[in-house]
Amino acid sequence: MTGSQFTGMPDQKTNQFFYGGSYVPLGLDKHIPMSEWEDGMREMKRLGINAFRAFAAWNRIERREGVPDFTELDRSMELAEKYGLRVLLNVGGLFNNIQGFRPPPWLHYVCHCTPRMETPGQKADGAELMLCSDDPVLQEKAYAFIRKTAMRYRSSPALESWNVWNEPHGDPCYCEWTLRAFRVWLRNKYRTLDALNERWGTVFPVDFPTWDDVRPFSEQSPYAHPDPCMRLDFLNFLEDNFIEKFNRIASILRETDPRHPTTFNLQGIHGHDMDRFHVDIPGISAYLELSSWTPREVHLWLNLYLKSARTGRKAEEKIRIIETDSGARPFARRSGCPRLAAARDWTFVAQGADMILSWIYRTRITGGHALQASMTRWDGTTPPRLEAAAERGRFIIRHQKRLLGAFPFPGRCGIFHDTKMYRYAAVEHWHGSHDFTTNSHDGAFMLMQDAGYAPEFINDAMVLDGRFRRFPAIVLPFMPYMTQPIAAALREYVRDGGILIAEALFAVKDENMEQFFRKTPGCGLDEVLGFRCADMLYLDSRKDGISLASGEKIPAEYFQLCIDPGPGAEIRGNFSDGSPAIVSARHGKGRTLFFGSLVTSRYRYQDTVLRRFLRSFLEDAEVPPLFTLRSGENADALGVYFATKNSRTIDIAYLMNYREEPITFSVHPDPALLDKIKGFTDILTGRKYVSLTDIRLDDRQCAVLFSEEA
User: Fold this and answer.
1) CA distance to 58, 147, 442, 579, per residue, from 301 (Å)
2) Residue 694, Cα to own-chain centre: how many angstroms?
3) Residue 704: half-sphere exposure toward Cβ, Cα within 13 Å
């Protein structure tokens, strides 16, 4: 079941844009006194802010078991109603807990719930006692509190939606409750203990005599060199176990209140498959000013944040920005920069956001966020940064009908981004797994973005259920592991006319990390890609690369596969020793292209040869880019995003200069996208354009161009 099946709720206001920040009550640390809340909400109303996020903190509301005190949350909701504000209410998990930042202490002292055991044999104590979320008593009482809270506020006129879990993740636990759950998971996978012992016994025999003897790996494990599948199984179990709890909370909210949509804010982009979370509208935390990022990195991360949030979703579905920078952060190079914030927010809108909430409307009194990361001054008064943000929010809301009526133009290239690959890489280390896996996925994405193909991420679920087939081209960056079902789907895709681009290492191991030692690529993909490989050499990126027939060179890294081309395969490039480096082949109606080294992991905008080569290959295969970009200056931090109402023509063109210097450029869309369009008007400046040529954007300036039909 995919997240996209939970859309289209009767009360989901897709024609309303929500702009604001997180306010009160908070989930952790001390907040401002309740006597000052009304002044804050009155000021929100004056500014035109129309939404905020609040938290239902179980450990504060129910200090004594069975004696909940909802006074603070009641007051927040009453004031929101009074001033016409809508509330995103975080009623579920927070970080690695199924409800709130810390469980109520009475769960430990009275109910004797089990402490989380982060290492085997650990004894937990102290004030920051954390409890295992697999403890059935904790689960029963947490879910009951969530249901009670949802019933209390489901009829509030201020309620806009439910936040299922704030920045969710699951941490390992080695207590007996988690071990029981892990053994159930293993039984469902292996069926018999003999099968488990066989799979886990590749390094040395384990031969557990009973299921009760089965233990997962740990860094302090008695196994000096644990079996890879032993490690992988525990990581996969933790992911499944955590997502099961998430979806249980989402189900409780949906059953208790089917009128209001559910959402959540995922932190980071490489941790989970967004497709597996059963929410109506996915959301993210997207921060840009925590460190001194370059303009190119801003461009990169905005794309990755937003496209990962859209993975598996239909183009017309919305996403939510539930946390983003508000200023002021003393350690950020561009702390609270209004120009960067404007470009950031318009990029959010370009990618289909219907909500932007900054962190935080007013600072905490205690904790690491006190004195910083606040939209307001410490005393709650309004600084220029908040005036500027509110003006931007009012402008978006004023134009919300057209902005929300369009959606991101469907991409013409899918980037395979199955997050299980990160768990594989963590188990086998891959000489620095995040360098290879993360950088390859990110590099491939930006390569195709720079080439004008408006790429989108796809995951294994989309491959298996066929949703990936809407893309005319697929890129498979650094994908050493392959399963028979995925391979079968890829073979059929190419046979039916799809374009497949891959790089080393590709399909050299199965899902159990065992090598396809007879031939690689495995699972029959050698026939699709037109070559076989049985050896690999080192490639010194300082002096080696891939040479094309034109004499130009493509940068490559780490691996040099020893490629044996098959009949009909075309050699498109060579390593410095003359051996084949790029192979092109035809399979059925489709075509494939394979690079015998890593070419995406260190991709830079300046790698124009690689970009031109790929675009030429795709255009020859009748897959034109959505647009081409012409600029006499460095356009590595120039965002170009098209929105459409009909998936055929451009309704809105969003152009973002993330650089701190002016840039002049021209955008040449696929001519089919301009059918019956006579020009554009920038709603931010009023300037009119006959075409998207000779456009100048100043320091971190953005243009939002509404098309005009002939």
Assistant:
1) 34, 36, 9, 36
2) 34
3) 21
Q: Which two tokens stand for residue 117?
A: 């055991």
The pLDDT of 188-193, averaged and rounded, is 98
* All domains in the chain, ordered by first residue: 3-106+136-170+236-405 (3.20.20.80), 414-620 (3.40.50.880), 627-709 (2.60.40.1180)
pLDDT tens digits, 363-416: 999 988 788 889 999 999 999 999 999 999 999 999 999 999 999 999 999 999
* Rounded Cα distance, 32 and 10, in Å: 36
Q: How far apart are CA 653 and CA 697, in angstroms?
A: 14
Which tokens belong to 584?
């092109």
Give the gyration radius of the chain's Cα atoms. 26
pLDDT, one tens digit per residue, over 608-666 is 999 999 999 999 999 999 999 999 777 999 999 999 999 999 999 999 999 999 999 99
Residue 152 Cα distances to 155, 194, 200, 219, 299, angstroms: 7, 51, 49, 45, 42
- Which pair of structure tokens corresponds to residue 654? 């969003």
What pLDDT was estimated at residue 330? 78
Confidence (pLDDT) at 3: 38
The residues pairing with 585 across neighbouring beta strands, listed in sequence order, are 592
Which of residues 324 and 9 earns the better pLDDT score?
Answer: 324
For 666, residues 6+ apart whose C-beta sits below 8 A from its C-beta are 629, 630, 631, 692, 693, 694, 695
**Who's near 263: CB < 8 A, 6+ residues apart?**
88, 161, 162, 163, 164, 279, 280, 281, 282, 283, 320, 322
Selection from 162, 160, 217 nearest residue 186 by Cα: 217
